[in-house]
Design brief:
The protein is α+β, with helices and mostly antiparallel strands and 182 residues long. The protein has helices at 10-17, 39-56, 112-116, 118-123, 175-178, and strands at residues 24-27, 30-33, 62-65, 69-73, 76-78, 82-85, 96-97, 100-106, 131-136, 141-147, 153-157, 163-166, 171-174. The chain has two domains: 1-34, no CATH class; 37-178, Alpha-Beta Complex (tt1808, chain A), CATH 3.90.1570.10.
Length: 182
C-alpha cells in the first residue's frame, strides 16, 4: 500500500504500517522508512539484548530487540534497537510499548545525529526512561546517559572500559561481549 500524502493520525499510521513489509517510525504525522541495518549493527544489538535477557531472567523486567515499537507521545513512535521495560502493562502488550526503563540505539553514520539529537530529546519525555545507551560499533564507543534524581540526564562515557553498569535494571555489560564477532 502506498504511503498517504497527508499527515496521519496515530490510528491511521498504525493501520497503514500493519500492512507494510518494512518498518516505519512515526513523527508529527509523518512516517519514515527504517533503513536496512548493516551486519555489525545487528550483531551489536543482538549481543546487548542477549546479555540483558540472560541477566534479567527471573526479574520483573524484560529485554526486547528492534522490531517492536515504543510510543513516546500521540504523534511519535520509534523502533529502538534494544529496550528493557519493567512496566506491567508493557509486559502484557503485543505491539506498542510505552514505559521503557532502558533504550539502546546502535549508531551508524546515517542515524547517529538523529539518535543523539531529536530521538533522544523525544525519549527524555518518557518518565519511565532511566538510561539511554548509545553504542558506536565502528569506533567502539559506548556512551550511557543516566537520569539523575533531579530528572536530568548525565553522560557516562564507558568507551575503553572493560565493563559498565546499566544500573537502573541492575545489569552490567562486558564491552568485549558487546563488540564480539565484529
Amino acid at each position: 500500500m502506498a504511503l498517504p500524502q497527508s499527515r496521519l493520525t496515530l490510528a491511521e499510521y498504525l493501520a497503514w504500517e500493519a500492512t507494510e513489509p518494512e518498518r516505519h517510525e512515526f513523527y508529527r504525522g509523518e512516517a519514515f522508512a527504517m533503513v536496512g541495518a548493516r551486519r555489525v549493527h545487528g550483531v551489536v544489538a543482538l549481543n546487548i539484548a542477549t546479555s540483558l535477557k540472560r541477566q534479567l531472567h527471573g526479574s520483573p523486567c524484560q529485554a526486547f530487540i528492534e522490531s517492536l515499537k515504543i510510543q513516546v507521545n500521540e504523534d511519535t513512535i520509534f523502533y529502538p534497537d534494544v529496550f528493557v521495560t519493567c512496566d506491567a502493562a508493557d509486559l502484557q502488550t503485543e505491539y506498542i510499548f510505552r514505559a521503557p526503563t532502558v533504550v539502546v540505539e546502535v549508531l551508524s553514520e546515517s542515524t547517529q545525529a538523529f539518535d543523539r539529537g531529536l530521538k533522544f530529546a523525544m525519549y527524555r519525555q518518557l518518565a519511565s526512561l532511566k538510561e539511554y545507551l548509545l553504542v558506536d560499533p565502528d569506533n567502539r564507543m559506548v556512551e550511557l546517559y543516566r537520569r539523575g534524581a533531579d530528572g536530568l540526564f548525565t553522560l557516562h562515557d564507558y568507551t575503553g572500559v572493560a565493563r559498565f553498569p546499566v544500573a537502573s535494571i541492575n545489569c552490567e555489560l562486558v564491552t568485549d561481549e558487546v563488540f564480539e564477532a565484529l
